[in-house]
Amino acid sequence: MTSLNKGTRKVEVKLKWDPSPLGAPASDLDIIAATYQANDPHGSPAYLVHFGSRSPDGTITLNRDSVNGKGLGWDEVMTLELDRLSPSYARVVVGVAIQQTGGRMTFDDIAHPASLILTGYTELSKSDFSGVAGSTAATIAEFARHGSEEWEFHPTVRGFDADPEDFAQLMGSRPS
Ligand SMILES: [Ca+2]
Q1: What is the distance in A from the centroid of ligand 1 to the CA of 146?
Q2: Backbone dihedral region of 91: left (phi > 0), alpha (psi from -120 to 50 degrees) or beta?
Q3: How far is it, in rounded angstroms, from Cα 122 to Cα 82?
Q4: What is the pLDDT of residues 56-92, one digit of tens each?
């Protein structure tokens, strides 16, 4: 793995998409972050952050939230202050899930989805989700540290076929 992005402290995750055409079900995408304990980095999430769930210590914040992709600029924005996370957390995975309430919807059904991950003004990664077009959810980033080492960034775009609730539980699992 690259060591270029070691020492990542504060990260911004941005997501945008265009609204569904008139008459079609609204498209609602969500940024979801899951934190994992150092003693179980691929197990169940310690806690989740998304539109309906705040981080207990305020280190991960959803600053902007959209239910339809309307409006200019970024529709959802999340800030992760990794340097403030308790030492008991060793891994954070960030993903994007598509709400499935209006019927099955994959990234292929979403108009111009795009994500951008930044630390300061430095771009860590971006995606147009074309590699996971048939998926209903995808991870877009992983941050990990060992003991007191610095956080390391891994751009791991991995597609899932799950609704947001199931995806949130699965997104940190090891690839089978
Ligand atoms: Ca949303």
Answers
A1: 32
A2: beta
A3: 16
A4: 999 999 999 999 999 999 999 999 999 999 999 999 9
Q: What's the gap in Å between 29 CA and the centre of ligand 1?
A: 4
Residue 43 identity: G
Residues contacting 67, CB < 8 A, separation 6+: 26, 28
Report the greatest alpha carbon distance in the chain: 52
Walk me through the domains of the chain, giving residue ranges and CATH numbers. 10-170 (2.60.60.30)
Going from the Cα of 150 to the center of ligand 1, the distance in angstroms, rounded, reads 31
Q: Return the SS3 of 83.
A: helix
Report the b/e string of 15-51 with b at 16+ CB within 10 A. bbbebbeeeeeebbbbbbbbbbebeebeeebbebbbb
pTM of the model: 0.94
pLDDT single digits (tens) 141-176 = 999 998 778 999 998 899 999 999 999 999 999 887
